[in-house]
Amino acid sequence: MERLIIKGGNQLHGDVNCSGAKNAGLPIIAATILLEKTIEIENLPHLKDISTMLELLNSMGSEINFLESGSIEINSSNINLPEARYELVKTMRASVLVMGPLLAKYGKAKISQPGGCNIGTRPIDFHLKGLEMMGAKIDSDKKFIYLKAQKLNPIDFIFPKVSVTGTENLMMAASLTRGKTVLRNCAKEPEVTELANFLNSCGANISGAGESIIEIEGTDLLNGKKWKILSDRIEAGTYLIAAAMTNGHIKVNNISPSTIKIIHQKLSDTGVKIKLEKNSVEADATTTNLQATDICTKPFPGFPTDMQAQFMALNSISNGSSTIEETVFENRFQHVIELRKMGANISLEKNKAKIIGVPNLVGSVVKASDLRASASLVLAALVGKNRTQIDDIFHIDRGYECIEEKLNKLGAEIIREPVI
Ligand code: UD1
Q1: To test ligand 1's pocket by mutation, which of 113, 165, 334 has the most ligand atoms within 8 angstroms of CB?
Q2: Annotated catalytic, 117?
Q3: Catalytic pick from 117, 186, 202, 296?
Q4: pLDDT tens digits along 50-88
Q5: What is the pLDDT of residues 141-164, one digit of tens each?
Q6: Cα–Cα distance measured from residue 15 to residue 211, given in angstroms and rounded to the nearest whole number
Q7: pTM listed for this prediction
């Protein structure tokens, strides 16, 4: 176990490079199950969730080769145990992404029940409903979900609610299912488009990704050579907020502004000066008197739920009062209690938080409860008076590559220490 110790009060300045996106890497690793030959993947971030997904594929029989260049080669042509074990699924729900590819390629899959998690019940009923419509026979017991299909059929399916991994699972299964599948009310997140682009580069025929209706003309064979993973828009947004909160000036490189439009627009509303270039976004808050701004989370292109906690930290020290409404997950406010320990004035009513800005936060001992909640605590600690100790930081290592190194390079004072 490790913890972070952060001395607050430093203005952050400089350039930071955005890493590859966890949420783009995970489905693409799962999609390699569909391929016949070896593929090389570049720009995968060094994150716990990525290693868990690689371990999952390896445990099923995929061959994984770490290249000196930092890229990874995966060959999943000989999977002999199409099973996602409990030990892996419990640490990472995105393990369910192997379900569609396994079923389409090997005709069966056994997946440990994902259960609820810290941010809500998070069912996978849409994934299962879609696969069942495609012809899968699905059984389950307390521990596992068992899926079998001699042959999958194309479908016309409407998602009852927008689901990112649901869209990805069905899109992957349909890519290797002869005939035309139509998916409606799909997630439009850039990571979904990235997966479609990846699959198309491997010979799939997918159109409409990034829009509500995706059409997939299935094929029998998929193969690709090399793919570079898209940059992480949530990581980029988190560093831009770090600039805002510390009255600093940070340029985030390797990020396409279009993927974080709503984030830089909201930051502009707070008074931060934003400069956009083709592949970078710069936030200058050196002369800004931060103004609070209201947020309501929505599927893309709306405000991402994965940035809600970080904006709450920002609003906690901004002038005025604001509301943050969470509409994607039912229980994503666990950071509130920790931010209050640091002096934030936040009240909660159902899925709405009301925040009254305070002039200062104060360092405290706080606990990370999930990935994005822990990012909000790091941000709060950067401006907290004195020292903040953040426990249970394994959550942050699931989604932020080298976070303390990157922030320290920008002027922060963060150390990681073992908990004895
Ligand atoms: C993905 C992201 C996660 C992000 C979330 C919302 C990955 C690996 N994770 O998670 O970081 O916070 O999108 O942008 O990409 N739902 C159902 N039934 C289903 C599926 C979803 O009721 O079968 C509900 C969920 O409980 C939630 C909503 O739909 O309320 C959206 O969830 P979904 O988009 O599926 O989230 P994930 O794909 O799990």
Answers
A1: 165
A2: yes
A3: 117
A4: 999 999 999 999 999 999 999 999 999 999 999 999 888
A5: 988 999 999 999 999 999 999 999
A6: 33
A7: 0.96
Q: Any known ligand binding at 188?
A: no
Distance CA 297, CA 368 (A): 21
Shortest-distance atom of ligand 1 to CA 329:
30
Average pLDDT over residues 136-144: 93
Average pLDDT rounded to a whole number, residues 215-222: 97
- Decide: 283 and 269 in contact? Cβ < 8 Å: no
**Residue whose token pair is 């903040």:** 388
Quote the ligand 1 centre to 165 CA distance (angstroms): 6
| Structure confidence at residue 120 (pLDDT) | 62
Ligand 1 centroid distance, CA of 349 (Å)? 23
Q: Are 36 and 221 in contact (CB under 8 A)?
A: yes
Pocket, ligand 1, Cβ cutoff 6 A: 23, 26, 94, 120, 122-127, 161, 163-166, 187, 191, 305-306, 328-329
- Percentage of residues in the chain having pLDDT higher than 90: 92
Q: Tokens 């993927």 sit at which residue?
A: 259
Are 199 and 172 in contact by the 8 Å Cβ rule? The answer is yes
Question: What are the CA-CA distances from residue 97 to residues 111, 190, 195 (Å)?
Answer: 10, 17, 12
Q: What is the pLDDT of residue 330?
A: 83
Residue 364 neighbours by CB under 8 Å, 6+ apart: 341, 342, 384, 388, 389
Say how far apart CA 193 and CA 56 lie, in whole Å: 24
